[in-house]
Design brief:
- The structure holds two protein chains of two kinds.
- By secondary structure, chain A is of the alpha+beta class.
- Chain A has a single domain, classed as Ubiquitin-like (UB roll) (Roll), CATH 3.10.20.30.
- In chain A, about 20% of the residues lie in helices and about 30% in strands.
- Chain A has helices spanning about 25-30, 30-40, 70-75; strands at about 10-15, 15-20, 45, 50-55, 65-70.
- The longest helix of chain A has 8 residues, at about 30-40.
- Chain A starts with 7 loop residues before the first strand and ends in a 6-residue tail after the last helix.
- Chain B is α/β, with parallel strands linked by helices.
- Chain B has two domains: about 45-345, 4-Layer Sandwich (Purple Acid Phosphatase, chain A, domain 2), CATH 3.60.21.10; about 355-535, 5'-nucleotidase,  domain 2.
- Chain B contains 14 helices and 29 strands.
- In chain B, helix 4 (about 130-140) runs antiparallel to helix 9 and helix 10 crosses helix 14 (about 510-525).
- Classes of the chains: A alpha+beta, B alpha/beta.
- Chains A and B meet through strand 2, helix 1 and strand 4 of A and strand 2, helix 6, helix 8, strand 13 and helix 13 of B.
- Strand 4 (about 50-55) of chain A pairs antiparallel with strand 13 of chain B.
Chain lengths: ~80, ~525
C-alpha cells in the first residue's frame, strides 16, 4: 500500500491563511456559502493575477484566492471566462 | 535545408530580429497593469498567419486544448435577459473544436490535459466510455492522464486507453517493480503539424497516489516532473522542432517546471481548473490552461521559425473561446451518442437499486434512521484498504426522505445532493470528543455517528456536554488514534468543525452517494432504525 501523506497546504482566501489537506479543492477553501454564490453566478473566484478559478480546481500551497462579488447586471449568464 | 532556404533565411534575419524586439517590447508593455478586462491585441484577430509557401521561414500552427472536462456532458443552462443560455456540454464542445479546426485543418493540434471522465452520473456510469467516444470523434491528437483517471481503478482506465484513437502520454508513470515506463502509455509522441514536428510529452499529477485510493494505483510509481522532463528532453529535441509538455501538474507545478527546465516551448496545463485568458511566459516557456468542464476551448496560435524551432510570435490575449449553445454546426455524431446516453441514464437513474423496509425522513438534529443508514454505509466503505472505526456525517447534509419500498439512485441523490467525497483520517479520541462537543455546542446534536455512541447533557456548559462516549462498545480512549471516515465538507472544516483539520493520514474514497448506493444494493432490503447511538440526557 502507498504511504499516506500528511502534507498540508496553506491557501489564502481573501488574504486570510487557511490550512488544508492535499487533494482538497477551491470550494473547500472558499467555504460552501461562497461556493453556493459562485454556483448561482453571483460571485466568481479569482487568483492573485485575476485569473478565474473553477470551484473544483485543485488547491496548491501558497495559492491566493479572492471571492469576487459580481455586479447584479453581470449575474445572469456570467460567462466562464 | 537547401541552399535557397538558407540564403532566404539570412536575407530575412534582420527583419526577424527587428520583429522579435518589437514582440518582446509589446509583451513587456502588455504585462504592465494588465487586467482581465483589457482589450485584446491578438494575432488571432488578424488573418491566419500560417503559410502554404514552403519558402516562408515560419509556420503558424494552432493548438486547441482542453483540460478537466470531468464528464460535463450536459451543458449548464443559465437565464439571461435574452433567454436561456447554454455553457459547455459535450456536443457544444466537440462542435466548437470542429469549427476551430476547420479554420486551419492541416495546422491544428488538439490536446487534452487530463481528468476527462469523472464528475457526472452519465459519464461515471460508463466509466468514461462516452466521453472517450466523443474525444475520438473530435480527433484529439494526444491526451495525458489526470489523477481522476484512476478513480475507478486500472482496468477501466486500460479500457479507455485502448479505446483512445490517439496516444495516451504519461512520461512520469513507471512500473514500480521494473522502473520502466508503464506499458499502457507512452512518454511522448511526435506529431507533424504543418511543416513542424511537435514533440508532446505527457505528465500526470505526481501526488496521484496520495489523493487516490491505494489499490487504484497499485504497482505504479509517479515520478516528479522535473527529473522526468530532463530525462526525455534530449531525445525530444533530437526529433522535434517544438517541445510541448501536456501537463496535469497544476498551475504551480507548471510554473515550477518552466522555471527549472530550459528548452520547453509550451506547457498545456490542467488540474487547477484555471481560466488563463493570456498565456504566461516564464523563462521563454508559454503556459496555458483552459478552465474546466468544457466551458472554454483554449486556442493558441504559435508562429515558429521552421529552421530553428524558435517561437517568434504567439497569440497573447483572449486565448479562451467560450463553448456556447450556438455552434456553427452541430456535430451530429456526438449529439446522437450523447442523446442516447442521456436517455439511458435518465432511465437507469430511476431504476431500483434496492429497498428500504421503512419510510425514512431527514432530521436536522439528533439521531434518525436515515442518518444511521448513511453513516453505516460510510463505515462499511473501503476508503483506503481498511475499514474505519468511526463514521461521521453532519445532519445538515441529508436533505430528502426515502419512502418505504424501492430506492432509485435518483431518489438517493436527492437525499445526498452535494457530491461530497468520503475521506478517512486518523484522529485521537480527544479530537473525536472535541468534534462531538462542537456538534452539541449550539443545538442538541448535529453529527451522526456509526461505530460509536455518545451521551450528552445540554444543561452543562458548552465544551463540557459529552458525558459518555464509546467506540465498538468500550469507552473512548482520548489518547488512542481512531480511523474516522467522514466527508470532505467536514474534513475541510465545514460546519465550523475545524478539529478535522488536525487529522493525519488523510485518504480519499468514493462520493458518499455512491458509497450509500453500493451499501443499499448489497444490504437490500435495508431497515435502519434509531438505536440509541446519540442520547440526550
Amino acid at each position: 500500500m502507498k504511504a499516506l501523506t500528511n502534507q498540508r497546504l496553506t491557501v489564502y482566501v481573501d488574504d486570510e491563511p487557511r490550512r488544508f489537506f492535499l487533494g482538497l479543492r477551491v470550494r473547500h477553501a472558499v467555504g460552501y456559502r461562497a461556493a453556493w454564490r459562485v454556483e448561482r453566478h453571483e460571485a466568481i473566484v479569482l487568483d492573485k493575477d485575476g485569473n478565474q478559478v473553477d470551484l473544483d480546481g485543485a488547491l496548491y500551497d501558497g495559492e491566493r484566492l479572492y471571492v469576487h462579488q459580481l455586479p447584479a447586471a453581470d449575474m445572469e449568464g456570467e460567462a466562464a471566462s | 535545408m537547401n541552399i535557397l532556404q538558407g540564403r532566404y533565411r539570412i536575407d530575412t534575419m534582420r527583419i526577424w530580429q527587428f520583429l522579435l524586439i518589437l514582440l518582446v517590447a509589446t509583451v513587456l508593455l502588455a504585462g504592465c497593469g494588465r487586467t482581465p478586462t483589457d482589450t485584446p491585441p491578438s494575432i488571432t484577430d488578424e488573418a491566419p498567419g500560417g503559410s502554404e509557401d514552403a519558402s516562408d521561414p515560419t509556420e503558424t500552427i494552432v493548438i486547441l486544448h482542453t483540460n478537466d472536462f470531468h464528464g460535463a456532458v450536459e451543458p449548464e443552462e443559465t437565464q439571461a435577459s435574452g433567454g436561456t443560455l447554454e455553457e459547455g456540454g459535450l456536443v457544444n464542445l466537440v462542435s466548437l473544436i470542429d469549427q476551430l479546426r476547420a479554420e486551419h485543418p492541416d495546422r491544428t493540434l488538439v490536446l487534452d490535459a487530463g481528468d476527462a471522465f469523472q464528475g457526472s452520473y452519465v459519464s461515471n456510469s460508463t466509466q468514461g466510455e462516452l466521453v472517450m467516444d466523443a474525444m475520438n470523434i473530435a480527433g484529439y491528437d494526444a491526451w495525458t492522464l489526470g489523477n481522476h483517471e484512476f478513480d475507478w481503478g486500472q482496468e477501466p482506465l486500460r479500457a479507455r486507453i485502448a479505446q483512445a484513437g490517439f496516444p495516451t502520454l504519461a512520461a512520469n508513470i513507471v512500473d514500480e517493480a521494473t522502473g520502466e515506463p508503464w506499458d499502457q502509455v507512452q512518454p511522448y509522441a511526435i506529431v507533424e503539424v504543418g511543416r513542424l514536428k511537435v514533440g508532446v510529452l505527457g505528465l500526470t499529477y505526481p501526488d496521484t497516489p496520495t489523493i487516490n485510493r491505494p489499490g487504484n494505483v497499485a504497482g505504479l510509481d509517479f515520478e516528479q516532473a522535473e527529473e522526468t522532463v530532463r530525462r526525455y528532453l534530449p531525445e525530444l529535441q533530437e526529433q522535434a522542432d517544438l517541445i510541448v509538455v501536456l501537463s496535469h501538474l497544476g498551475y504551480d507545478g507548471d510554473l515550477a517546471l518552466a522555471k527549472a527546465v530550459d528548452g520547453l516551448d509550451l506547457i498545456v496545463g490542467g488540474h487547477s481548473h484555471m481560466f488563463l485568458e493570456s498565456p504566461r511566459n516564464i523563462n521563454n516557456t508559454l503556459i496555458v490552461q483552459a478552465g474546466a468542464k468544457g466551458q472554454v476551448v483554449g486556442r493558441l496560435e504559435l508562429t515558429v521559425d521552421v529552421d530553428t524551432g524558435e517561437v517568434v510570435d504567439f497569440s497573447s490575449r483572449k486565448v479562451l473561446v467560450p463553448v456556447t449553445g450556438n455552434p456553427a454546426a452541430v456535430n451530429e455524431e456526438v449529439k446522437s451518442l450523447v442523446d442516447a446516453a442521456l436517455a439511458e441514464a435518465a432511465e437507469t437513474i430511476e431504476q431500483p437499486i434496492g429497498e428500504t423496509a421503512v419510510a425514512l425522513q431527514p432530521q436536522s438534529t439528533g439521531e434518525f434512521a436515515l442518518g444511521n443508514l448513511v453513516v453505516d454505509a460510510m463505515l462499511a466503505a473501503d476508503v483506503d484498504g481498511q475499514l474505519a472505526d468511526i463514521a461521521m456525517h453532519n445532519n445538515g447534509g441529508i436533505r430528502a426522505p426515502l419512502p418505504k419500498g424501492s430506492i432509485s439512485f435518483g431518489q438517493l441523490y436527492a437525499v445526498l445532493p452535494f457530491d461530497n467525497q468520503l475521506m478517512a483520517l486518523d484522529l485521537t479520541g480527544e479530537q473525536v470528543l472535541r468534534i462531538l462537543e462542537h456538534s452539541v455546542s449550539n443545538s442538541p446534536g448535529k453529527m451522526l455517528v456509526a461505530g460509536m455512541t455518545f451521551r450528552f447533557d445540554m444543561s452543562r456548559p458548552a465544551g463540557d456536554r459529552i458525558v459518555e462516549a464509546t467506540v465498538a462498545g468500550v469507552p473512548l480512549d482520548p489518547a488512542r488514534l481512531y480511523r474516522v471516515v467522514t466527508i470532505d465538507y467536514l474534513a475541510s472544516g465545514g460546519d465550523g468543525q475545524e478539529t478535522f483539520l488536525e487529522g493525519t493520514n488523510p485518504a480519499y474514497g468514493d462520493t458518499a452517494v455512491w458509497a450509500v448506493a453500493q451499501y443499499i444494493q448489497d444490504q437490500s432490503p435495508v431497515h435502519p432504525k434509531v438505536e440509541g447511538r446519540i442520547v440526550q440526557q
